[in-house]
C-alpha cells in the first residue's frame, strides 16, 4: 500500500477502530501462542518478543488516550478491554484529531501498518495450529517459520517505536502549550476571597494599633477570627472573639477567668473617607439595605434595585447589618419578632463611638457588652483605617445582641482547641468538609497575620460545645462550623519568631517549596486523610513537614488513599504548587487555579459522597 493509499485508508476508518482491532488482535494472538507453547525451546523467545510488542502498543495507546479521556482509571480500563464503552464515545475520534492535529493521518498510517502485520502473524499462526504433520516435520516447519515470525516481530517493533515517538512528541508539544487550553477551564476565584483577606488584615492591624486597655489585670489580648467570613459588595463581615489574658496570680483559678468579648465586625470599604450620615438618611439606608438582603421581598424592576445598590455602595455606614438570607430563614417567628431591630435602635446605632478616642477600648467593650438585655443596640463603636487608595471603616457589634445569632455560635463558655486534636474522630464527610474549609481558609487568609506562614492544623482552632446533648457526628459538625484562627495583639510576652533557617526564602531555595502556605495546605490534607500527624506518618525525620509529605506521597502508605486517589492528587498539587500558574498566591491566576482545582474539586467530592451515603 502506498503512502497515499495508506492515508486514504486511514481517513476512511479513523484511528479508534484500528486501535481497538489491534488490541483485540494482540489478545487473540497471545492465546494462540499459548497453544503453540509446547514448542517452547523454539518459540520462547518469539513469545516474549511478541508480549513486549503487545505491551508497547498498549502503552502507546494509553499515552494517546490520556490526551482524549480525562479519567486515568477509564484510560487503563479501555486499554485492557477493547469492548469498553469508552471506545464508543461519539466524539473520541474528534478529540484524537484535536490532539494529533497535522500528525493525525500519519498516526493512522502507523496503526494501520501495525494492524496489517498482526493480521499476517495471525494467519501464520492459524496455519500452524492446523498442522498435523509428524513431529520432526513440525520441528522443521517451525524453524523455517520462526524466521518469518522474527521478521514480522521486527516490523512490529519498528512501527511501535515510530508510534511511540510520535505520541511522545505530541505530548511534549501540548505540554509546552500549557496542556491544551481547551481542556482546562478554570473558574475565577470569587472576589470575596481577596476582599476578606484585605479586611481581615486591616482588622488585625487596627486591633494592634488602636486597642487600648487600662485594666491592670490584663497581660495581653487574643483575637479569634471565624474562618467563615462573608463579603458582599464593598462590605465584609467577620466574626471575632476577643479574649483577655489575665496576669497569672496565685489566687486566679480557672473558673474566675473572664468571659471573652464576642464581636461581629463589619468592614466597609470606600475609596475615600466618608462623612457620617445624618439621622434623616437612616431610613433610606435601611430600605436600601433591606432591598439588598431581601431581594425576594421587594420585587422591583432590576434597574431600580441596581440603582439602589449603587447608591448603597457609597452611603451605607453605621447600619445594623441584616441577617444573611439563610440565617433569616432559619430563625423562628418568635425570635424574629424579638430581634429585628426597630428603626429607633437603628437611629441609636448612629450615636457611635470612635473607639480610638476612648481611653480603654477593652473596658468600653466589656461594659457595653454587659449592658442590660433590654438595651437592643448592638453597636459598640468603630475604628477607621485610612490607607491609600482605600479607606476601611470597621464597625463593631455585640454578637450576643446581634439578630443573626447563629444556632452554631460558640457559647461564651466554650473552650477552644486545635483541630489537630480531633483528627482521629473524623468520619469521611467531616474529613472532606475540613479539607474544603482549610482550602478556602488558605485562599482567604494567606499572607495575613491570622494565618502563620508555616501554618499547620495546630493553628486552626474549634470551640468545644460538649454541653449540648447530641450525637458525636453532629457534635463534630458543629465543631467544624466553629473553626477559627487566633492571633495575639498587644501581648506583653514577645511572640515566637520563625527559625531563621526556615524562612520562606530559604525553604524555597533549599527545599524547592514554591509556595509555603499552599504546601502546608497539602500537608494538612494528607494529615486529614491519614488521620495522623505528619511527624508520626513519616518513617524518618526530615528538615520540614513538606519534605516529609513528599516522602509519604512517594511511599504511598495505605492510609493515604482513604479518601481516594483524586484527593491525594489534590494534596500533591498543593505541595508542589503544580497549577501551571506560577507560585504567587496574590496573583489572580494562581488563586483561580487553586479555587478550581482544590476548592471546587473538594466541593465535588463532598457532593458525591453525600449522594453516595444518601444525604
Ligand atoms: Zn484588656
From TrEMBL:
<keyword id="KW-0812">Transmembrane</keyword>
<protein>
    <submittedName>
        <fullName>Uncharacterized protein</fullName>
    </submittedName>
</protein>
<keyword id="KW-0175">Coiled coil</keyword>
<feature type="coiled-coil region">
    <location>
        <begin position="142"/>
        <end position="169"/>
    </location>
</feature>
<keyword id="KW-1133">Transmembrane helix</keyword>
<feature type="transmembrane region" description="Helical">
    <location>
        <begin position="6"/>
        <end position="23"/>
    </location>
</feature>
<keyword id="KW-0472">Membrane</keyword>
<feature type="region of interest" description="Disordered">
    <location>
        <begin position="314"/>
        <end position="343"/>
    </location>
</feature>
Amino acid at each position: 500500500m502506498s503512502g497515499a493509499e495508506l492515508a486514504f485508508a486511514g481517513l476512511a476508518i479513523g484511528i479508534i477502530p484500528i486501535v481497538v482491532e489491534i488490541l483485540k488482535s494482540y489478545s487473540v494472538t497471545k492465546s494462540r501462542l499459548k497453544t503453540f507453547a509446547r514448542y517452547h525451546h523454539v518459540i520462547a523467545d518469539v513469545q516474549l518478543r511478541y508480549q513486549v510488542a503487545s505491551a508497547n502498543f498498549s502503552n502507546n495507546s494509553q499515552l494517546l488516550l490520556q490526551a482524549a479521556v480525562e479519567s486515568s482509571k477509564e484510560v487503563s480500563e479501555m486499554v485492557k478491554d477493547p469492548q469498553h464503552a469508552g471506545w464508543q464515545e461519539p466524539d473520541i475520534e474528534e478529540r484524537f484529531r484535536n490532539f494529533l492535529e497535522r500528525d493525525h493521518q500519519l498516526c493512522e498510517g502507523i496503526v494501520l501498518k501495525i494492524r496489517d502485520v498482526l493480521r499476517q502473524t495471525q494467519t501464520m499462526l492459524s496455519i500452524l495450529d492446523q498442522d498435523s504433520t509428524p513431529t520432526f516435520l513440525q520441528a522443521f516447519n517451525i524453524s523455517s517459520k520462526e524466521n518469518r515470525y522474527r521478521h514480522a516481530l521486527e516490523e512490529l517493533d519498528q512501527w511501535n517505536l515510530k508510534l511511540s515517538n510520535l505520541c511522545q512528541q505530541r505530548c511534549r508539544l501540548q505540554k509546552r502549550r500549557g496542556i491544551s487550553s481547551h481542556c482546562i477551564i478554570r473558574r475565577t476565584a470569587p472576589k470575596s476571597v481577596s476582599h476578606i483577606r484585605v479586611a481581615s488584615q486591616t482588622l488585625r492591624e487596627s486591633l494592634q494599633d488602636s486597642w487600648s486597655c487600662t485594666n491592670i489585670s490584663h497581660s495581653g489580648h487574643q483575637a479569634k477570627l471565624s474562618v467563615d467570613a462573608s463579603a458582599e459588595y464593598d462590605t465584609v463581615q467577620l466574626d471575632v472573639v476577643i479574649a483577655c489574658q489575665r496576669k497569672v496570680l496565685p489566687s486566679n483559678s480557672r473558673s474566675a477567668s473572664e468571659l471573652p468579648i464576642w464581636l461581629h465586625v463589619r468592614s466597609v470599604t470606600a475609596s475615600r473617607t466618608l462623612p457620617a450620615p445624618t439621622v434623616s438618611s437612616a431610613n433610606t439606608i435601611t430600605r436600601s439595605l433591606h432591598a439588598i438582603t431581601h431581594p425576594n421581598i421587594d420585587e422591583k424592576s432590576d434597574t431600580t434595585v441596581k440603582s439602589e445598590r449603587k447608591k448603597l455602595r457609597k452611603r451605607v455606614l453605621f447600619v445594623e447589618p441584616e441577617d444573611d438570607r439563610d440565617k433569616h430563614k432559619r430563625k423562628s417567628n418568635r425570635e424574629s419578632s424579638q430581634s429585628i431591630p426597630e428603626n429607633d435602635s437603628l437611629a441609636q446605632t448612629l450615636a457611635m463611638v470612635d473607639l480610638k478616642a476612648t481611653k480603654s477600648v477593652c473596658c468600653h467593650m466589656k461594659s457595653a457588652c454587659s449592658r442590660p438585655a433590654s438595651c437592643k443596640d448592638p453597636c459598640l463603636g468603630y475604628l477607621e483605617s485610612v490607607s491609600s487608595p482605600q479607606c476601611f471603616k470597621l464597625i463593631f457589634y455585640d454578637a450576643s445582641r446581634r439578630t443573626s445569632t447563629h444556632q452554631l455560635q460558640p457559647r461564651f463558655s466554650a473552650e477552644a482547641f486545635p483541630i489537630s486534636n480531633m483528627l482521629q474522630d473524623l468520619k469521611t464527610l467531616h474529613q472532606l468538609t475540613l479539607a474544603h474549609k482549610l482550602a478556602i481558609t488558605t485562599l482567604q487568609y494567606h499572607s495575613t497575620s491570622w494565618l502563620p506562614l508555616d501554618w499547620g492544623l495546630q493553628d486552626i482552632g474549634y470551640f468545644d460545645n460538649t454541653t449540648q446533648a447530641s450525637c458525636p457526628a453532629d457534635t463534630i459538625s458543629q465543631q467544624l462550623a466553629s473553626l477559627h484562627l487566633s492571633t495575639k495583639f498587644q501581648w506583653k510576652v514577645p511572640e515566637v519568631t520563625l527559625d531563621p533557617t526556615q524562612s520562606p526564602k530559604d525553604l524555597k531555595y533549599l527545599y524547592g517549596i514554591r509556595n509555603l502556605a499552599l504546601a502546608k495546605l497539602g500537608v494538612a490534607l494528607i494529615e486529614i486523610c491519614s488521620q495522623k500527624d505528619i511527624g508520626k506518618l513519616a518513617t524518618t525525620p526530615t528538615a520540614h513537614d513538606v519534605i516529609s509529605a513528599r516522602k509519604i506521597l512517594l511511599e504511598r502508605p495505605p492510609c493515604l488513599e482513604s479518601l481516594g486517589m483524586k484527593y491525594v492528587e489534590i494534596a500533591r498539587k498543593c505541595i508542589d504548587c503544580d497549577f501551571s500558574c506560577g507560585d504567587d498566591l496574590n496573583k489572580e491566576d494562581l488563586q483561580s487555579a487553586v479555587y478550581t482545582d482544590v476548592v471546587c474539586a473538594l466541593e465535588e467530592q463532598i457532593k458525591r459522597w453525600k449522594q453516595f451515603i444518601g444525604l
